[in-house]
Design goal:
The structure is a single chain. The chain has about 300 residues and is an alpha+beta fold. It is about 45% helix and about 20% strand. It contains twelve helices and nine strands. The two termini are about 25 Å apart. The mean pLDDT is about 90.
């Protein structure tokens, strides 16, 4: 399993659409929520994206454009700069009940992950990502899906709410993949673009139970031990073995929450010879004992 697929499997993405409506007239919307990544899709018309406290100029968004805020950055969507509305004011109508020809349609939602630790995919993204449906590289894969999503947003067919959530799941995956492919100067995107480091990352995620050492990973990358360790840390900001431990503990957290697997089995799957060694590493990395996570305490 490749690195991105494994991370998504470990963290279990769930997009939750909480607003699908059409605005007519003046409106000002702020859906920032601490601890949750937020996204907005303009399904009709246009609006402005404002970032309070930022010197950046407001961005004009048009139908088909997508905004992702991975770290709950404070933001507002408004009809115009001098709108008379206060935050979260403005008359909206459920899209199927609203006239299609006028106004601004918005699909808004949160991205939730079944994992309390830092998410490497969200960490790899900037505070604001704007994907414009008519601009490369987003038009290559995102535009066809966005067209389906927009059609579903104005549909009155049964199951539309669940369908929208699933489409947003896929949309996030495509967005992250496109972003990492296009931004390879540093971080996870750079690590995956580096064939040698990328090969070691895929191997780590495919075999968390393997007895990894820096020497073994360096050999896999066809690099000297010192060169591999230095390059790995330069790109990802942590040591190879620190990365291995973090991935193991994140995978263990998912297994503990799922149930059905004993702690002894989880220890073995994470490459530990004893439960005691595993429990110590888990507590150090995740801030809670395996038993408390299993009981639903964290």
């Amino acid at each position: 399993m490749d690195t991105i697929s494994h991370i998504l499997k470990t963290f279990r993405l769930q997009a939750r659409v909480f607003h699908n409506a059409k605005y007519c007239g003046a409106f000002k919307v702020d859906t920032s929520k601490e601890g949750l990544a937020t996204f907005h899709i303009v399904t009709a018309g246009h609006c402005l994206l404002e970032l309070p406290g930022s010197e950046a100029e407001p961005e004009t968004l048009s139908a088909g454009d997508l905004v992702l805020l991975p770290r709950a950055r404070r933001h507002c969507l408004v009809d115009r700069l001098d709108t008379p509305c206060d935050i979260n004011e403005g008359r909206s109508t459920p899209f199927p009940e609203a006239p299609v020809e006028t106004g601004t349609g918005l699909v808004c939602g949160y991205l939730e992950f079944d994992q309390p630790s830092s998410n490497p995919l969200l960490d790899a993204l900037p505070d604001v990502v704007v994907a414009r449906s008519d601009a490369a590289p987003w038009d290559r894969h995102l535009l066809p899906l966005l067209r389906i999503l927009i059609a579903e947003s104005i549909s009155s067919m049964r199951g539309a709410e669940v369908t929208l959530n699933r489409l947003c799941d896929v949309l996030f995956v495509l967005l992250v993949r496109e972003y990492l492919e296009q931004n390879t100067e540093h971080g996870l995107g750079a690590a995956l673009a580096d064939q040698r480091i990328g090969r070691s990352l895929d191997a780590i995620h495919a075999g968390l139970d393997a007895q990894w050492t820096v020497d073994a990973l360096a050999s896999l990358a066809a690099m000297s031990r010192a060169a591999f360790a230095s390059r790995f840390r330069d790109l990802l900001g942590e040591t190879p073995m620190g990365y291995v431990t973090r991935c193991r503990m994140q995978g263990a957290h998912r297994l503990l929450r799922d149930g059905g697997v004993t702690i002894a089995d989880i220890s073995e799957r994470c490459g530990y010879a004893s439960e005691a060694a595993f429990a110590k590493a888990f507590k150090r990395e995740m801030g809670a004992s395996p038993g408390s996570v299993r009981r639903g305490g964290d």
